[in-house]
Every structure is written in structure tokens, then in C-alpha cells.
Amino acid sequence: MTGTWINFLIDIVIIICLLVGTFFIFSTSIGILRFPDVYTRLHASTKAATLGVAGVMIGAFLFLYLENGIVSGKLILGIVFVLLTAPVSGHMISRAAHQSGVKPWSRGQLKDDFADALKSKNKN
Amino acid sequence: MAFQMILNIIIAIMWMFLSENYTFSSFISGYIIGILLLLAFQRFIPDNFYMIRVVKVIRLVLLFFKELLLSNIEIVKLVYKPKPSFEPGIFALPTELKSNWEITMLANLITLTPGTLSVAVSDDNSTIFIHAMDLGDVEESIQAIKDTFEKAIMEVTR
Predict the structure, then answer these.
(1) Of A25, A52, B37, B107, which residue is least crowded by CB atoms under 10 Å?
(2) Both B20 and B96 in a single domain?
(3) Which structural domain, as residue segments, surrounds residue A59?
């Protein structure tokens, strides 16, 4: 009797991990569709996607460990590398966008210290 | 620091040989005994006890995960807001950090914090340009980044 209860609990935990992960990935894609420009879209894709992928991988890790007794080091390494590379790629894409002249979207007055700094440097 | 680490590993290997049990778990127990020995004899060993720095690194990693979670919740809130009311823009953050390693860490942490994305680093490594989702109070967010991340990184590297 107790064994089935524990199995039930394990299933619930795994399902929660997977659902949270997929929810964050889904929100990322909604954010990419809804936000106005490159930079705000990068906000969505670099942040929410990391937790989404991490959630799915933690769910898969727990499933493999608790159901089959396999400790999958690859999944842990996957989480670590997603966490390490997502901010770097976000940084590079935003920098490339800015250097190819994409203006940040703004409702009112645009505040862009980077463009100002580049301008004053070119003047000197 | 490197000297203490090597000493600790040597103690762990010696423990493995003394207990004639060549497994990973005996290496771990030997390593823990090495930590205790180093703690007991820290007066005679040059430099500060290196576990202090390890604890600081662990604290930085925990901070990283906490901010990641918070920023995810923040961005999901913004995604599902029926009428988005944010005011994006790019502001400059003057930083005191010097080496490439420290600045890389800081830029990565900024990207994973709520509402900020590092766009570029100036040529002289003195300023980081940050795209903010909501330019509420620039001074306040600069102060927050300086107080939490810069301090945590400085504690680890200096």
C-alpha cells in the first residue's frame, strides 16, 4: 500500500516539473510574439527559456532516476550549459542588433546611453 | 589557496590508502577529514582557510539561482499582462570590477536578473550598457546591482 502511495507522489513531482518547464517555454514563445522589438524579445527568450529547459530536464532526470535507477549526468550537464550559454547568446545578439542599427522600441522618449556614448566617442 | 587544495587532496588520497578502500566515497570522507585537519592547523599554513572562499562561491551560485527564478516569474507576468505598460531603454552602469573574468560574471548575472539585459561593455571595461525592460528608477537599479552582484563577485575574487 505504501509503495503505491510513494509511486503516486513521485509521479506528481515529475509531472509538476515537466508542466512548469513547458509552461515557461510556452510563455517564452508568447512573449516573443507579443513584445515589440529585438531587445524586449531577448528578455523573454534568455530568461524564461532557461528555467523552462531546466524544468524539463530536471523532470526527465527525476524520472530516469526514480523509475529506472539511472543517474543521468548528461541531463545535469545540459542544465549547466543552458544556464551558462543563454545569457552569453542574449548579450551577443543584442550587441549585434545594436551595432547594425536597430533602435530600441520606446513608448515615449527614447533613452539610449550606449548610442550616446558611441556618438561622443566618434566625435573625439 | 592552490597549496591548501593540493594539501587537502593529498590528505584524501592518503586516507584512501590507509583505509585500503579505493572508492569514491572513501575519497570524499578523506577530503572531509582533510578539511577538518586544515581547519585545526590553519595557524601554521599560509593564506586564509580556503573553505571560506568556497562558501562564498556557493553563496554566489545560490544568489544566481534565486535571481533566475525571480526574473522568470517577472517576465512571465509581463508576457501575460493584457496591456503591456513597460518603458524600455538602455542605461549605463559604471562598474568597479577590473578583470575580464569578473566582468563576464557580472554581465551574465545582469542578463539573468529581473528586467535587465546586458547589451555591451565599453572598450575600457569601465561601463556596462544595460537594456532594461522597465526604466522606472535608473539610480535605484544601479544601486541594487552594485550592492548585490558586484559585492558578491568581489568577495569571491578578492
Answers:
(1) B37
(2) no
(3) 2-123
B135 interfacial to chain A (CB closer than 8 Å) = yes
Cβ contact, residue pair B119, A114, below 8 Å: yes
pLDDT tens string B107-139: 888 887 777 888 888 888 788 888 887 777 777
| Per-residue pLDDT reduced to its tens digit, B50-99 | 788 888 888 888 888 888 888 888 888 888 888 777 778 888 888 888 88
Contact A44 B119 (CB under 8 A): no
- CB–CB contact B112 A47 (8 Å): yes
Residues B93 and B122 in one domain: yes
Cell of A28: 517564452
Residues B88 and B38 in one domain: no
How far B119 CA sits from the closest chain A CA (Å)? 5
Residue A88: C-alpha distances to residues A52, B40, B76, B104, B155 (Å): 17, 42, 21, 9, 23
Q: Are A62 and A17 in contact (CB under 8 A)?
A: yes
In chain A, the number of structural domains is 1
Please tell me whether residues B90 and B114 are part of one structural domain.
yes
- Calculate how close chain A gets to B155, using CA atoms only, in Å: 21
**One domain for residues B23 and B61:** no
Beta bridge partners of residue B89, listed in sequence order:
B132
Q: Which of B87, B112, B131 to mutate to test the interface with A (most CBs of A within 10 A)?
A: B131
CB contact B63 to A (< 8 Å): no
How far apart are the CA of B142 and the nearest CA of chain A, in angstroms? Answer: 14
Spell out the residues 6+ positions from residue B153 whose beta carbon is closer than 8 angstroms to its own: B60, B97, B102, B105, B106, B109
Give A57's Cβ-side CA count (13 Å radius): 19
Contact A95 B119 (CB under 8 A): yes
